[in-house]
Structure formats: C-alpha cells, structure tokens
C-alpha cells in the first residue's frame, strides 16, 4: 500500500464524527456536550483537508474552509460557554435534562 | 510506509483520546482528552501536508478554545465531583445503535463511491501563500466575503458572550457571583 | 296571460298576507301594536279585494275553465319532471279564495277587539297573516308538490296559533297533539303522493285529473299489493285529508285545539284549515270518482265521523268543545257528500262545496259569538251561563240566526246546503247513509239549541256571574253582523250554476227529502227547549238514568285516553326509548369518541415535545440514518421496504405512547421525565 488513501482518512473522520455524535447524545453535562461538538467539527474539518489533499491540489478551498470551521467553532464555543455560565447561576448545575423550558 | 504507520498511530491516539471525551465522568479528564484528540488531529494535518492548518489548529483551537473551556470548567463545575448521573440505558443503546448504523452507512458509501484516482502519489497541497491569497481575494475562487462575514460573526459572538455572561446588576453591593 | 286583470294577478292573493307576516314579525316590532294589526288587516283586506275581483271575473267571463295564469318550476327533478308552484284558477279554488279571504279578514277585525291589550298582540297578527298566506297558497295550488308544502305550512301556523297561550301547559299539549296527529297523517299523504306521481310521472293537477292519466293509473297495478295505483294512492292521500279534517280516528286533536284564542278557533278550526282535507278530495275528485275503494273510504269514514261527533256533542259542557264536535260532524257531512258523488251524478260534489261555504259562514259566526259570550262572562262552561239574551242583544240575535242555519231551518243557508247533501245521498242510492245523515241532522239541531238555550235563556249556576255581562265592542259585533248576512242569504245563490263537475244538475227542493229533515230539526229544537230553556233537573236525571253509556259518551269514548296509552306505554317504551338510547350512546358516543381521541392524540403528541434536547437530536440523527439507504436505494423495492419499515416503526412508537397515555400508565415517559 502506498500510504493511507483517501478512504482511510474519510473512514477515520467518519469514526471521529460518530464518536462525537454518540457523546453528544449520551452525555448529561452541558460542557461535555460542547466538547463532543468540537470533536464533530474537527472531524468535518479533517474531511475537508483530506479531500483537498487527495483530489484538488491547487485549489485552496480545503484549508480555507477548515480555517473557517475553526473560527466558527471559536465563536460558538464562546457563546455556548457564556450561556452555560448564565444557566449555572440560576440552577447551580449544568444538567441538560434540566434545561427543558422550551416545551409544550 | 512511514506515512501509513504515522497515520495509524495518530489515528489510534486520537480515537483513544476521543474515548475519554465521550465516556469520562470527570469533566477535567474530558477536557484533557479533548486536548489530546485535537493534538492528534493537528498531527494528522501535518502528515497530510497542511502545515499551516496544523499550526492554526494548535494555536487557535487548543490554545484558545480549549483553554476557555478549561477556564469555564474550573469556574462552574466541581471537578472532584464524580457523581454525575448518566443517561438512561435505553438512550445509550439506541444512540450507540444509531451511531454505528451511521458509521456503517458512511463507510459503505465511501467504499462504493468511485473517487477519481489521484494523479500522482505525492500531491502538492496548497501553500501558505495560496491560502492567504484565497482568503483575501474577492471575486471567484476568493473567500474575502466569507472572511469578512466571519469577522463580523466573531465580533457578534464577542458582544453576545459578554452580554449573556455578565453578572446581573443588583442595586447596591457587589454581585454575588463575581466572575 | 288570460287578459283578466284579477286572475292574472291572482298571485297577489297569497303574497299580500305573506308580506304582511314578514312585515309584522320583522319590521314593525318597535312600533305600537295597533300598527301591526292595521298592517295585517290591510294586507288581508287587499288580498280579499283581489280575490273577489278574480272570482267575479272568473264566474262572469271564464266559467267552467281551468286556468293556470302563473307557474314556475320550483324543483326540477329531470328535464321532463318538475314540481311546479303557481296559481290555478277554477271554480272551487276561487270559491275557497273568496271564503278564506273574507272570513280571514273579518276575523282579523274581530281579533282587534278580542285581543286588545294582550301581550302577544303583534305575534298573533303575524301568525294570522302567516296562516292566511299558507291557506291561500294551498287553495290556489297547481300541483301536488305545492299543495303538500302549503299543507305543512298550514299545520305549522295552526300549531303556532293553538299554542298562542304558551304559558298554559294544556295549550302546549294541545298544539303538540294537533301537529303530531296531522303530521302523522301526512305520512300517508306523502306516500300516496309519491306513489301517484311516480306512476303518473307528473305532479300537476291539470295533468293528474285528465281522463287519460286516470285511465292509465286505474289499469296499472302495484306489483306486490295487487291493487291499482289509483286506489292505493287515493286511500293514502285520503289519510292525509282525514288527518287535516279531523276524521275518525284522527279526530282527537280538534277538540283540544280549542285551547287557542276563540278567533283562531273560528278561522282555522271551523271555517278554513279543517276544510283543507275536503278541498283536497274535491281537487282530486276525478281520481276518487274513478276508484271505488277511494270513494268508499271517503264515504264510510265521513258518515261515521258525523254520527260519532254529533253523539258526543250532546254531552259536552264547554261551549267551544260543543262547537268543535259540531264542526267534526259537519265535516263528516262534507266528506259524505263527496263520497256519494259519481262522475255521471256529481250532485254530491256541488252539495259538499255548498255546505263548505255555508258552514264556513255560520260556524265562524257561532265561534265569534261564543267568543263574544266568553269575553262577557269569562268562562267557557255552559252551566255557568244563562239569560244572556237580554244583556247581549246583537250577539244573541246573530247567534240565534246561526243556530237556525246549522239546524237546517228554511229559508236560511244551512237548510239549502244540507238538503242538497241529503238529496245527493238519496238519489245515488245510498239509503243507509241517507238515514244516518238524517239522524245526524236531528241531533245537530238538538245539541245546537241545547247550547243556545243554556247560554242565552236559562239561569246560570251562580246568578251573579252575569251581572256585569255587557255587549261586546263594535269591532266584534261588526264582524258578527256581517257574517249573519251570508248565513241568511247564501241559500238563494244558484250555487250549482257556478260550482259543478260534470252534468249540471239543478236540484230543486225535493220536499219528500226536505220534509223529514225539517221535521227532525224541529223536533230537536222543541226537545231542547223543554229540557234546557229553564233550569230543570231533567237532563241530569236522564244522564243518571243512562249511567255508564252517558259516561262513555261524555268522555268522548275514551279515545284520548286510548291514544295516550298507546303513545306512552307502547311507543315511548318500545320505540322511542331504544332510539333515544342509541342516539345518546352510539351516535353521541361516536362523536365523543372522535373528540376524545383527537384530544388524546394531541396530548400524546404533545409529549414528544419534551424539551429534552438529546431526544430531539436522537430523532434527527435516526431520521438521517434511515434516510440514507432510502435515498440511496430510491426507486428500488429495498428502498421502499426500508422506508415503510421505518415509518411503521415510528408510527408504532407513537401509537404505543398514545395507548399508554390514555391508560395513564406510561412508564417510558415517566422515565424520560426523570432523566
């Protein structure tokens, strides 16, 4: 084999994605859920870069998008953490099952 | 050959760290696991010839976002607390099943899809100059507009985060929970 | 269309009171009550003028023809079959128009005085106009459909007017009874109507009474029953007529209908509505004449009713009840007269119509006079009246005239019409019927003069009751005097010249027939004089001597009790109650179930919006996982299988949750809630 092929990277990023998704669905702590979200985002960025490396050499779209993803993740993390802090002040805990005000 | 070994080592390392992220009861261990996973991904960026991105990942992601997360963990969670009720068993099994199915589906799709064979073995990836040009040039092929939009987004996030996390002002006296 | 103005505008006759009804009931509510009555009377008066004009024009220039100056297709069933509404002008319809409009107008005027100051004054005049509209629409009907529609409208108006004193439970019961009995009879009418028009393929009277149609119907037999269409429909339609004209055994509603105000009784239950049945038979006379079964039914029931009612009338003490039974008896006479007529010897037809007219006049007069008496002494009971002839001269005079007319004393109108009926019966060979009719004539004279003497001559049980009795106001006595004129003079009109079917028979007075009639009448009057003109104990002793038979007759042969028994014990218990149960539990239950399951469904689905973020996420991802192979395998059976399996799974989960929700034992939901 001549080094890892595109499929290897794609499978790996899919694995990372699903692991992150599983954590997202299972963890009760809000910050833990945020961290799993970061895993998911990273998997997506890796996917972009892998495609860029193997298929679209000259075009710089891949890394650029990965940079965008990182920037967006930063913004999102900041807001999310701010919300968690505000929530913590009211409830003294960060349990996702408690945050159910938006229901019928 | 080297590539393959490095790839598998880094991949294993990342997955192992991810495992910590998704199952550890200790929140701090979660955060450490995530740092390790992100470092692993940075390593993968290196071997895939995206050095700039690897540097950005470490600097921004690990050094910025994760640090923020760790700060918040230290602020709001009792890190020694071990008693975190986990989700119901049925939720875990169903989620696991769904994720496994999803993974299987993507793998299947990947193997079935006829990707065009790469021209050579050692492709060149974009250099930092090319990335810079792409980021800042307007017009087709340029990403100046998204760049500006993201900067706007970051400002909005900044203002939003400050507003949301600001302690509530009480008439007279310092706020109860000084941040 | 015909060039005769009044006949061309004959549609004004029912329309004017109809508009009056609308105006009084809707538009004039806030104005003074006198305005309502004036409008109503005005509408009726104009209608009467048009009616008289049309009658004069018809009998003067177009006699003998049947004209349809206006009609339109109200319901169209097919290109060839339509239920028409319009105006039909011939001898009997214009006769009835004149009778109805005139008497209705006089009663409108009378009611102004009778009901002055009453709380429901406006409502009364509105309903009177409604009734006039319905009755005139019925009389001028050009097709079976129209007559049926107005038949029911008349029933409704009667219901509304009998129940005028709706605070009295007896009045409410009476109006219900009248409506239900006539409605029940109309079932027969409807079946007969439908049978007839189905086989004849038409509704219009002109078409149905033509010889070809009748021949056709007489020869068509109904498959299952083996009798001709003609006979079956004649008998069934007669059921409706019998109900409206209160023939035995559907007579029970008419005595109770006296609960309404006396002018209403005069108009509806003496002069006009109850003759609708007679009119229907007369309108369809060619059909009845061609059907032996039909004619027999009419004759037998009519004769029996006249005897039956006359016997009961002898024992009643309520002045209006006596008059009600008298009406029943006279209606029986009219039916009897129609029953003895045949196509080649149709004297009975003319006699019936003649008696209808004279009866309308003198019966209305009797009722209005009774109203005047009741107004004066504030009681209906004959035993509490007496000696009124000095106190109420006009009422007394007109009442006496009317009693003489109904007793058949020459030369008043009643003598001529009764004599014609007897002559028709004799000449067509119905000797038994003749004998019964003769007997009824005698009874009629007796009970009418019993009433007269008890009210105007004798001494009341409480002598002071009549101290304050005085003559009624002019609005009431005017009507009395006006009605007395035709009562006296109508006999001299050559009726048969105008109203006839078939060969024109002029019956001069056959003294061989008239003689016994006058004799029996005279005997009745004399007997009544001796028994009732002074307070003697003779009637009471005689009643005691008859004992049980008297009691039986006094209670109207217990027919009311019989009907009540059948309805309450049998129909309510075995028919109405099961239906009621079914309606409440099955029909309502089904509706409730629909609403309930919708509500439960909503509640169950509401639970899916639990606010649990991870649950939402799980569903999203699961949906994506299912969609991937579906889209991938889109178009192939595998794709459909997966899609349907997934939908089934989702539906199953929802249904499971619904069931648990309704059973209120949903464990997974509680666990989710605790998570």
First CA to last CA of chain C: what distance?
A: 90 Å
Number of continuous helical runs of chain C: 30
CATH class of chain A: Mainly Alpha
Overall SS class of chain C: mainly alpha
Net shape of chain A: elongated
Helix proportion of chain A: over 70%
- CATH topology assignment of chain A: Helix Hairpins
* N-end to C-end Cα span of chain A: 56 Å
Biggest sheet strand order of chain C reads: 1-2
Low-confidence segments of chain A, ≥5 residues, pLDDT <50? none
Radius of gyration of chain A, Cα only, in angstroms?
17 Å
Structural class of chain A: mainly alpha
Global shape of chain C:
elongated
Tell how many strands the DSSP assignment of chain A holds: 0
pLDDT under 50 segments of chain C (min length 5)? none
The fraction of residues in strands of chain A falls at under 5%
Query: Strand count, sense and closure of the main sheet of chain A?
Result: none
Assembly of the depicted chains: heterotrimer
Mean pLDDT across residues of chain C? 86
Under the CATH scheme, the architecture of chain A is Orthogonal Bundle
Structure, described:
- The complex is a heterotrimer of chains A (104), B (179) and C (675).
- Chain A is built from three helices and no strands.
- With 104 residues, chain A is mainly alpha-helical.
- Chain B has helices at residues 2-23, 27-47, 51-76, 89-112, 128-136, 144-165.
- In chain B, helix 1 packs antiparallel against helix 2 (27-47) and helix 2 packs antiparallel against helix 3.
- Chain C is built from 30 helices and two strands.
- Chain C has helices at residues 5-8, 12-27, 33-61, 91-114, 121-139, 144-162, 169-200, 205-208, 211-219, 229-244, 253-256, 262-271, 275-283, 285-290, 292-313, 319-340, 347-377, 388-391, 393-407, 413-427, 431-456, 474-489, 495-498, 511-532, 538-546, 548-554, 559-606, 613-632, 637-663, 667-674; strands at residues 67-76, 82-89.
- Chain C has a two-stranded antiparallel sheet with strand order 1-2.
- Chain C is elongated, with a radius of gyration of 33 Å.
- Classes of the chains: A mainly alpha (104), B mainly alpha (179), C mainly alpha (675).
- Chains in contact: A-B, A-C, B-C.
- Chains A and B meet through helix 1, helix 2 and helix 3 of A and helix 1, helix 2, helix 3, helix 4 and helix 5 of B.
